[in-house]
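Researcher: Structure prediction, please.
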Amino acid sequence: MLGRILILLRARLAAQGSDAAFPAAAILMQGFVSAVVCGLVRGELPPFAYALVALSTSAALVAIPLLGELSRLLLADETGDWIRAQPVRAIELHLARTAHLLIALGVLSLGALVPAALLAQGFDAAGRIELVLLGLGQSLTLAAALLAVQALLRGRAQALLVVVQTALFLGVLVGASIGLRLVPQMRGWNSATSVESALAFPPAWFAAPFSSGELPGMLALAAPIAIALSVALLLGLPAPEVRRFQRGTSLLEGVLAPLRRFAVRTWVHGRERASFEWLYEALPREREFVLRTYPLLAVPAAFLWISASGESAAAKQGWLALLLFIPGAYVPLLAAHVPGSDSHRARWILDTAPIQEAEVRNGAIKALTVRFLVPFYALLILIGCLLGGAQLMLQLALPALVCAVLVLRLTWSRCVTLPPLSISPDSILVSQDWIGLLATAAGALSLVAVLASRVVTGPLQALAFAALALAVERAFDRRSRVSPR
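Model: Predicted structure follows.
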């Protein structure tokens, strides 16, 4: 039995290729982030507080890959039918997949935990080893929790699964930015009892052994219980099956149906409709596309909401304008994931289609706009209304949406170098050269937001601004239909 498990495990590792089997770049990045954070607080905090910072950083750095490239390890193998036809048992397949997940988790976790242990002051050798082991147990708990969520929600509530994973992604990023502000207060945190609602914050469970003095029973036992339950879940809970297609129409698709028909009649021209209809239907059903792009769009909205919520009425108007325009700078990252698909081997259908590259590109841009950007900007309008800026939201919503479409057009050839749905999602690479491009887009949109918040003071100015934005988009649309690129 053990021999068959090892054979299956070696096959799974070999199937990833050398780059995926040992993610050197990811380990170096995690080590760099962990070293910077822990280096800033070393010598300033007592052992418990330092362990809390180190383990919180490790949790954030592990949770993000678990939502991205490692998420496939939480699902059943797509070649399961073929593998089950081999002379192996189901338990052997399950244990091989679990071992693969543990190896990936261990490698990535050590990338953040080893620098944290080496930089720890006031820790002896046993304490440093204990910190690493507790961090590995925390990563195990995160993986088991995500596996349980996927097993409970997948298939029956895919939209809720997306909400859960997006909320976790935002919690990691927002929590990391806010947590650094608490470092001065943490100098007096010598025990887990110093943390309010410690039982609601998992890193505090695993940092609790470094507390001075005795702990309440629940805090002392939280980490061992979590690890034991995680092991039981990973060994006993079967991986959820990958759902390739879901029948029926979602509520959002029903709401967008009139807008879709209107776009087809007035905006989507000629053979652009082929790629428009194709991507409109296919992209929302691509699991990796949804899970990787929705959190990216939610990040700027979350940060700007936090920034605007405590401002005065005058300053809030500027923040609300930024809330509408700044997310347009993230649109290139949305477009960069368009080439990824679980069914990328069917790209020959596109390669042999009698359609030009410009028509595919224009149809894809318009599909992204109607299916993803319109609902997203509707959500931004709702957030702005809740913050007390309903009038400004209604005046600037359409120009902001058009600006996002223009950014999408101007950056498409730089960020999307392959046809839609033509490669595996794991093969998508975000180039470091895009940082300057995205920063330029963010700076330009910030200037437009500030100008719009000061100039657009009434309905007439709003109509004029919207008409100008639509005229610019129409000019770019006509130019793209006659230009080969």
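Model: The mean pLDDT is 80.
Researcher: Thanks, that helps.
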